[in-house]
Structures are given as structure tokens and as C-alpha cells.
Amino acid sequence: MEKKTILVKNGIVIDGTGKPGHRADIRIRNGMIERISEELQPAEGEMLLPADRLCVCPGFIDAHCHTDFYAEHLPDACGKALQGVTTDVCGLCGDSAAPIGTGNLEELRRRREYRLPGTPPLPARSFGEYRQQIDRQGNATNMALFVGNSNLRIHAVGYENRHATAAEMSRMTGMLTESMQEGAFGLSTGLTYVPSMKSSTEELVALCRAMAPYGGIYNSHMRNESDCVMEAIREVITIAERSGGKRHISHLKVSGKRNHGKAGECLALIHEANARGVDVSYDVYPYTAGSCGLRTLLPPEILVRETVFNPTFLLAPDTLAMLRRRYEEADWDNLLLSCGGDGIVLSAGVSGLEGRSIGEIAAQWETDAAEAVARLLCRTEGQGTIIYHALAEKDLRTFLLDPLCSIGTDAFARSYTGPSVEGCPHPRNYGAFPRWVRRYLLDEGLLSIEEGVRRITSLPAQQFDLKNRGLLQEGFCADLTIFDPKTIGERGDFLHPAQQPEGIKYVLVNGRLTVEDGVFLTEKNGRMLRMH
After folding, report:
1. Using CB atoms within 10 A of its CB, is residue 480 exposed (0-12), middle (13-18) or buried (19+)?
2. What is the C-alpha to C-alpha distance for residues 239 and 206, in angstroms, rounded to an integer?
3. Where are the beta strands (DSSP E) in 14-127?
4. For 71-119, what is each residue's pLDDT tens digit?
5. Of the four, 132, 463, 513, 527, which is 20 to 30 A from 139 by CA?
């Protein structure tokens, strides 16, 4: 769509600062907010967006997601834009779409999860080359991309169960430094996943120091989110103290019934660190259930094997015996122990079983959870996904109330048809932000609407150094979300997730309409953002 002047008329402006909303008009020109005033007269040829009785906000910023995995092959995915999202913070949990080195590339191609069916093998490419590809084709949302720690380790070390040598550290820091120069926002880790989990604290400190001259942010899926969550938070704080800069905890949670009630203790550690001058923030998704790969149900000493999903190995009596023993132990991030077989649901991978729990599948097959997991992994070749019900609503609310908390989806860029919607993906892929606004702000009043909008606009913009975004302010980029407070809400659920939410009327990305009167325009108005 050709750039033009747009006038948003008679809206209730909630500007992202947390201040009370007020009625005003907004003029947008050449992708920027030109003027905000109580009364602006339409100019000749100007596009008019009537916003009577609608809330006009900065575009929502998804503080944690994985849009980059699908963006190259699904740039017009509408699932985020129809939630009101204009910017995705992605490349997280230790995995990113770039950079991808030549080292161990074939093994990466065999192992890499979360790829769209039918897409070509991952190419070796620099961060800058991926940026150029996205900027050429466009995207439904803007992307602020981190470098995955696993990408660095796979290139330099591979999947071996060991720490990096000095020479390998040099290769990793070189790749990270080059990516920072090309606009990356920092380093992400997935310390419960292979191979990121093999990174020592010292290795992470060294990588953070290498990106410090570029203002890089350390964004951590921590080493543990259940029985050892406090130790994991302390590690993030230690890395921050030893390397400086901003540090952020991805999707903070306390998993498993044994850990319910620990949210206050987690926040005490984080706030004590901030009081000492250590900049640590966090995000959560507004659900008590998470989602990840089916393979994460395996203990790490099995996952490091390249032939792990071979039935000859995984279904061998000795392997099953070891699995049964390990599922009783808490020295790793053991979701089966934390959630139980009835609390983990297969969301994608085996037609006819999606939406059913591990416990139900095991009963159907007349076996136990260990063998059911092994058989599912063999049938899906390790590519299945799960939803796990692990959190307590009370802990979630404690996290949500805290002023350091931003909101993320932990979701992918999905559409309502095609391969991205196969199975029963977590409903957060389609409704997290309308759910946040409807349930927690408007219906329950957990926070004011103004403060709740701040948590999804200016707060993540501040946490991730997103320049000129997150506020409705003259001279800022014109990312806007306009919604009806009477109707906004999530419509999907865990069995029927791919439902368009209600109430999102208009979405503008870089001053161009992406959603008009609730209809996605298939416009690819987003671009890759730069840290500097």
C-alpha cells in the first residue's frame, strides 16, 4: 500500500505511559506520528479512521515469541497482527533463524525443531543476510531479533556434552559480535534445551562481555523453571553482575505443584538485584499452561545422542528402564515429574492423538508414561509438540502485578489455515493479548487499562531498547492498535485454538494499515528492527 496521510479521529488515546486515557486525534504521515491534538481537521485526500468509543494505543509488543522461525516462509501470517501485535521480540530460548554457521550444519538440519513442513533445508547464513531477506519480502510484524546461543554452539562445538574450548569460544564470540554489528539485540539462551544447556556460567559471561560494547541484552530461558528456579534466577543475576548490561528472564514461571507459591520469593531475588543496580526484568504469558517440543520430556543425557529417535535405541528395554528411573528424579527440568502424565497434552505430531494427555495415550496403549513418550517421539521423529499445565493462577497473578513484568506469547507466526495451524497449538498463538486486555484488565481489574497497556507497549520497548516505539508520541513510529473495549477478547481454547479474537478494529505497522475493520489485509508492512 502506498504511504499516505492517515487521521485517527475521536479515539480514546491510551498513550503507553500509564497516564489516564483522553480523547484526541492523531495524524500519521510517512510512517510517523506527526500530530496528536484534541481537534484535527481532515485534510484533502487523507484517509480517515473513525475511532469513536475505541481505545487507541501504541502497537502491542510481544515481549517473547518465535516469529523468526516461520517468517521467511510465512511472512503474511495473520495470527499476531489480529491480536494487535505490531512488533515481535524473537530469536529466543537459545534458537534463532540466524546466524547459521557452516559448522555441523547437516546435524542442525536433522535436529532443528519448529520448522514448517515442506520448507527447504536451513541455509548457512549470517545475521545480516537473514535481515536482508526479511527486509526484501516484508513481514506482517516488525521483528527485534536476538541471537540464539544454540546457534553459536552448534557452529563452534556441535551437540557434544561438554563445555567450549578457548578456540571454540573465539568462534562463538566472533559470530555473536558480527551479528551485533548487523543489528542483533543480544543473546538468548535455552538452558533446559540441548545444546544450550551445556553452556557454563563462565561461557555466558564471556559472551555477554563480548556484546557489551554494542549494548547487547542477555535474554535467558533459565536453567530451571521448577524445583531449582531460585538457583536459576541467581545465575542470571550473577551473569549480569559479572558482565554488566541489561538482563531479562524469559517467560518467568514456577512449574509443578511442589513449587506453587514461590512467585513472591522469585520476585524478591529480582528486586534485590535491581536495588543493587543490576538491571533484570522479565516477561510472562497470561496462561497457566506452557508449550514446547515433545522431545523436552527426555533427560539431557539422552537428547545429546544424534540417533536418539531411532526406535531400536529409544524403545530398547535398557533405555525404557533408564527413562522410568529418570522420570522419578528432580535433578533436571523434569516436566513429567512436575506436571504428571495427565497434565501434559500432545498438541501436534500424531493425527488422532492431538489434544489427548500422555496419561490418556498411555492408558490407550496399555503401557506407562515412559514408553508412551518414547513411542510418540519415534512416531514423530522428535518433531511433536506438547502443552503442559504446570503453573498456579495465584503465582501467575503475582508475577502479572509486578511493575517489571511485560507480556509475551511464546508463540509462532501462524495463520488460520495451512501447515502452521496443524494439530492443537496453544491458544496463545491467536489470543494472548486480547485475553490479557479482556480478562485481566477490563473484567477483573487486576491493573488499570492504562497500566495494562503500558505493560505491552512502552515497558517492553524500554526493556529491549526499541527506539521510537511503544508510545503514542509525536515523532515516534506509527505502530498503532485500535480496539473496542466492549468486545475485545480471546475466542479460542485448547481444543479449538485457531479462532480470530474479537475487538481488534485497526492495526497500523510503520504507518500502514495491516488490519482494517477487523480484517487482515495481507500487507507485509513490518521490517527487521536494529539495536543501533
Report:
1. buried
2. 9
3. 22-29, 32-37, 47-50, 55-58, 60-62, 85-90
4. 999 999 999 999 999 999 999 999 999 999 999 999 999 888 777 878 8
5. 463
